[in-house]
Specification:
heterodimer; A: mainly alpha; two-stranded antiparallel ribbon; 12 helices; 77% helix; B: alpha/beta; 3-stranded antiparallel sheet; 11 strands
Chain lengths: 298, 253
Amino acid sequence: MRMDMATPTITGTRATTMNDYVAYYLAGSGSAVLVSVLCVALASGALSPIVVANRMAFFSDAVAHSSLAGVALGMLMSAWIPGLTTLPVLTMAGFGVCVALVIATLRQKSPLALDTLLGVAMAGSLALGLVLYHRVRGYTDLHGFLLGQVSLLGWADAALMAINAAISLALVALFSNKLTLIAVSRNLAQARGVSVARHEYLLIVMLGLVVSISVKAVGILMVNALLVVPAATARHLVRSFAGLFWASMAVSMIAGVAGLLIGDLLNLPTAPAIVSTSVILFAAAWVVGTLRGHGGQA
Amino acid sequence: MAPEDLLTLEHVTVRVGDRALVDNVSLGLPRGKLVALIGPNGAGKTTLLRAILGLTAFEGHIHTHARIGYVPQALQYDRTLPMTVLEFMALSLQRMPVAFGISRAARQQVLSLLELVGAQKLAQARLGALSGGELQRVMLAGALQGKPELLLLDEPAAGVDIEGEATFHDLILRQVRDHGVTVVLVSHDLSVVSEITDHVICLNRKLMCEGNARDLLTAERIAEVFGGHKAVYGHAHGHGHTHDHGHQGHDHE
């Protein structure tokens, strides 16, 4: 039995063939799952080039690991504010943004290297999350947070993931030029009038938000792969930044849909199936890029 | 501020904690001159440029109304990042995300700027695949957007071959002679400084000397500024050269 499985059924019969699954996701009750996955793929595919260009892969991983503490905090607080069912989602996003800001501030003030700070933040927030979660629920359903609960997503989740995608696309539309210039040279960006610190904080807050929300669908352990692998795959195939952006989106969407179907057909947990598919695409792109003589440099 | 000066510094000090990276520097930059800013590693050259650009806090006063173009030290970015020269230059020329495409206006502006430095052919080249000399010309083209009156070039010759360096110096001299631009060139190559620059500023946290290049670049003065570890020797490409053989590190970035 898949850990995240709500077994797809078409008119009361368990889906077994590819056609059954396609019908389930397009016309059945699985539509919310498909929309959620496409929105997560859109969000991560759009942000991936910025995350990779600004070398923030470990940063987003640290924020993802803090999500469990955010959720557990929300569950604890729910006891005091009964009826507010969205509280764990709010505290998860809020806690993720707070952790992101703390890391960003320490990065500015502390003499420690960034990877050291991220290591401490990742371990600390995950430990805090496990302690709080254990206090609330033991370790019941913990795997859902670690590996995601894709097939259990409903329309409320789909709406949340759509907001997530909108945030990512807005970040790209409004700030990607400046964030890319900062990635090439902070000094040059500053000299051309870009407020580097303000834009870095903006990216960090937005990334914290997007990562925290995406965790609800794809889990703490998988979310970072979705932010890094699409652009890492695309860079083997393209030579322009526009190409990187669109190829990254395509890789992310293809991996999302293909992973969803492969997970169903092979009875695998969905989020790991999506990530595995994207890593297979990465390996294929690497081979193609190498055969075309681009190697890792597109 | 003397009327012939484009920029004046009065008692400029930049501190990090208790340490002064630039200590009480006062000077004027004459208009339409190629000015060399020289000094050993850690002398505060990059810090002084950052202060002029308003990128770092300083004590004292800097007076100028000039439009400023800037070429930073070697870029520290991921050279495998897919990005064309056209896209890189359009990043600060259009509001539409470069990821969505390049506007016609930005494309024309980039091509015009690249033409100024003889690099039109590089528009579609990948930024990370450029040679040191090509990247230097592209960066200069980027600095020329907005028609600057003052160009600040922070060790632009680092990692560039002799031919590329000569081409770059020709381009700089053309900006000075044909367009009246004032150029501040941070350089470690004292032979270049003595050959092409009009005016020299020697910095070692404090202002050590300022004036005409040929008058100032004496062995005694160089020893004073650089701490006596300079060597004068003949290069494979000709004339006798005086080079800084200190560390290869930079002040910043």
